[in-house]
């Protein structure tokens, strides 16, 4: 029976258990009962209170990746890393340091996505011609890659013959190095959609500092326009709890020695940073999509409903009906609303003709037509080749910032493992307003009137996103 279950698991794209997992190979009808009997009692409290924090904004691979490497290089006690996409050169650099730290006795825990059989073949050396051209030969002058090169990161705005290089996962490499890796099982979320993934992006080091936001750590997607915040202060305790819960949802054999948060040290670190203008004090509360808490949509709609002056949204995917209704009601009562979305021309390698974001665009255009003078507008982000506008960001009334891994879609609110954090602090909110307005002014494209096909794509996008 175990062999049959293992074969089914592999065929469904789930990797075999690592030494740090104890995957029982559950059938779909066993998920709920297993969770209640074996895991629910191990879940640490999350999302029940607000915490003091200081945060600084990091943007793009140029700021996020170097800071992440620096954090793990300086780690003395523990490194917790939960990442959806993990591959390519940035993963190689991280793994080299993680392996060294692990051998030095630093506690290392990794939560990564499972590897498919096709990706195992790629890791074994079955490379495509694109891969060979990109990594083992001189780049052809006529070929444009939106990718870091040995000479540094360069992107061309236009190129008809652009080719995006393949994703090179490094999960197997981490496992083979003997690093503690688990794959969180999102099927524990009941009543979700067909697609369920662990979509979180979180790094916590020494119980003192953390990175949280939307950036994946994979070179193929390194060109994405995205943001994370580096966090210090008591919020770290909450982020550690989130990691431990997800670690246990990966059938982890051991969750001991993970909690390293120290209140005295956290307060001292936070106070030292408050005098730095790059760091912003805020009260912070986490929301999640998880089997033990599913409240991001609820809190988001409530915050939008309480908005008095302005709502700024910058999102990769935005089609959740309830959230869109809340935004529409805010605009109708006089709140200024500005929305930036990805154009959806090559999401996941396909041209979706606007995809799920057509739903948000259609709403804005309908409101503008029905209520002349209403203060709501939407723009597409002018993406570069191989790039997505990957932010998951909302700024409300210049005092509340929400960001994390959560797209504003029904799938993200119902099916995935997602972490979103609401920060209440004017300084951070104004910094992110500046971030948003720069994108609006320099990268925002006026959206043409949607036709019937585009509206139809938007209407049915909930099925896929």
Structure summarized in a few sentences:
The protein is α+β, with helices and mostly antiparallel strands.
Overview of the molecule:
The chain has about 475 residues and is of the alpha+beta class. It has two domains: about 1-130 and about 165-275, Endonuclease Chain A (Endonuclease, Chain A, 2-Layer Sandwich), CATH 3.30.870.10; about 295-465, Endonuclease Chain A (Endonuclease, Chain A, 2-Layer Sandwich). Helix content is about 35%, strand content about 20%. It has helices at about 1-10, 30-40, 60-75, 90-105, 115-125, 130-135, 170-175, 235-250, 265-275, 295-305, 320-330, 355-370, 410-415, 425-445, 450-460, and strands at about 50-60, 80-85, 85, 105-110, 145-150, 150-155, 180, 200-205, 210-215, 215-220, 225-230, 280-290, 295, 310-315, 335-340, 375-380, 390-395, 400-405, 420-425, 445. The strands form three sheets. The chain has a 16-stranded mixed β-sheet that branches. It has a two-stranded parallel sheet with strand order 3-10. Strands 5-6 form a two-stranded antiparallel ribbon. Helix 12 packs across helix 15 (about 450-460). The protein is globular and about 65 Å long.
């Amino acid at each position: 029976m175990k062999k049959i279950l293992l074969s089914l698991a592999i065929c469904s794209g789930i990797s075999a258990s690592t030494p740090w997992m104890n995957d029982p190979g559950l059938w779909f009808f066993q998920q709920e009962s297993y969770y209640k009997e074996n895991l629910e009692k191990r879940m640490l409290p999350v999302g029940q209170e607000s915490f003091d924090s200081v945060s600084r904004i990091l943007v793009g691979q140029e700021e996020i990746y170097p800071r992440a490497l620096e954090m793990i290089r300086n780690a003395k006690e523990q490194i917790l890393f939960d990442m959806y996409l993990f591959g390519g050169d940035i993963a190689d650099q991280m793994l080299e340091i993680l392996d060294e730290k692990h051998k030095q006795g630093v506690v290392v825990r990794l939560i990564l996505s499972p590897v498919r059989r096709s990706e195992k073949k790629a890791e074994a050396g079955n490379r495509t011609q694109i891969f060979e051209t990109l990594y083992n030969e001189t780049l052809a002058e006529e070929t444009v890659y939106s990718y870091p090169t040995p000479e540094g990161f360069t992107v061309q705005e236009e190129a008809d013959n652009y080719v995006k290089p393949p994703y090179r996962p490094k999960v197997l490499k981490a496992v083979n190095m003997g690093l503690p890796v688990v794959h969180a099982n999102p099927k524990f979320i009941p009543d979700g959609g067909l697609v369920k993934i662990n979509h979180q992006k979180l790094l916590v080091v020494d119980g003192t500092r953390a990175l949280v936001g939307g950036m994946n750590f994979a070179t193929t997607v390194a060109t994405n326009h995205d943001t994370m915040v580096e966090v210090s202060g008591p919020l770290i305790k909450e982020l550690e709890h989130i990691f431990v819960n997800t670690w246990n949802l990966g059938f982890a054999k051991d969750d001991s020695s993970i909690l390293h948060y120290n209140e005295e040290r956290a307060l001292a670190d936070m106070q030292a940073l408050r005098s730095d203008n790059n760091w912003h004090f805020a009260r912070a509360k986490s929301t999640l999509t998880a089997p033990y808490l599913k409240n991001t949509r609820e809190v988001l709609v409530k915050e939008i409903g309480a908005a008095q002056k302005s709502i700024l949204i910058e999102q990769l995917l935005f089609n959740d009906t309830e959230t869109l209704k809340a935004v529409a009601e805010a605009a109708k009562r006089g709140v200024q609303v500005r929305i930036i979305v990805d154009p959806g021309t090559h999401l996941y390698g396909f041209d979706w003709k606007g995809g799920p974001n057509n739903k948000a665009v259609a709403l804005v255009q309908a409101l503008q037509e029905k209520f002349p003078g209403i203060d709501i507008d939407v723009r597409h982000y002018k993406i570069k080749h191989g790039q997505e506008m990957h932010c998951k960001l909302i700024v409300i009334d210049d005092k509340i910032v929400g960001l994390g891994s959560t797209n504003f879609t029904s799938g993200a609110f119902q099916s995935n493992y997602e972490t979103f954090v609401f920060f209440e602090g004017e300084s951070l909110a104004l910094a992110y307003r500046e971030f948003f307005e720069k994108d609006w002014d320099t990268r925002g494209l006026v959206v043409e009137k949607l036709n019937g096909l585009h509206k139809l794509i938007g209407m049915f996008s909930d099925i896929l996103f």
